[in-house]
Amino acid sequence: MKTSSLRFSSLRNIILASAMSVLGAAAWAHGDVTPQAVDTKTLPQLGSKWLPSNPYSSGPAFNEALRIGSSAYNQNCARCHGLEAISGGIAPDLRKLDADCTGMADAQKKSACFAEMDEFYVATVRRGRTRDGRVYMPPFEATLSQEAIWAIRTYLETRREK
Ligand code: HEC
Q1: CA gap 38, 54 in Å, rounded
Q2: pLDDT at 152
Q3: Which of 40, 79, 124 to mutate to test the pocket of ligand 1 (most atoms within 8 A of CB)?
Q4: Ligand 1 centroid vs 124 CA: distance in angstroms?
Q5: What is the DSSP letter of 83?
Q6: Separation CA 56–CA 69 (nearest Å)
Q7: What is the pLDDT of residues 99-110, one digit of tens each?
Q8: Is the CB of 81 under 6 A from ligand 1?
Q9: 16-41, pLDDT tens digit by residue?
Q10: Spatial separation of the C-alpha atoms in residues 87 and 100, rounded to whole Å
């Protein structure tokens, strides 16, 4: 009797401890200081050299990049840029990021415009934004891999205002 209640209580402690670590992880994900690392091993790996434009925009990796990117966006960007990239006003509305390009009639000019935005996007996310010594946006280079940053871009492409 005694042993079984002991066993029960240690089992309960294990359950409690794991419930708490799940809760802890959830609190962490919504925390407002620490960026979240993102598991990107199911995506084609890109190496250490930064690509000039989004390799996942089209082609077979698109769906997986979208899946990873939407969750990575929610964990790392949504607290400032808003859920589903709909800004509440604290930070720019990222649905409008490519607004200058989307209306272009000339296909070649349009894709050159998107490529330029890719460069601007990646530079901003890697380095963040600091003006007059104030951090407006933290740098993500140390936390997010190149794969994660392009996966987020893939998600944002699906959120473009039409
Ligand atoms: C702490 C809040 C915060 C977080 C977190 C954050 N950003 Fe930002 N971001 C900003 C602010 C504020 C600006 C505008 C900075 C400025 O005025 O110079 C900005 C600017 C940008 C821009 C340039 C937009 C433009 O129109 O100039 C991009 C792109 C961007 N963020 C992407 C991201 C992505 C992707 C993430 C997540 C990986 C992210 N941001 C996380 C606050 C944040």
Answers
A1: 17
A2: 98
A3: 124
A4: 7
A5: G
A6: 10
A7: 999 999 999 999
A8: yes
A9: 444 444 444 443 444 455 677 899 99
A10: 18
Q: Tell me the two tokens of residue 63.
A: 């769906």
Written as six digits, the tokens of 72 are 């990575």
Dump pLDDT digits (tens) for 66-80: 999 999 999 999 999
Ligand 1 pocket member 150 (CB < 6 A): no
Higher pLDDT, 96 or 36: 96
Is ligand 1 within 6 A of the CB of residue 139? no
Q: DSSP letters along 16-62, please?
A: HHHHHHHHHHHHHHH-SSPPPP---TTSPP--SSPPSS-TTSSSTTH
SS3 at position 161: coil
127 vs 11: CA distance, rounded Å: 46
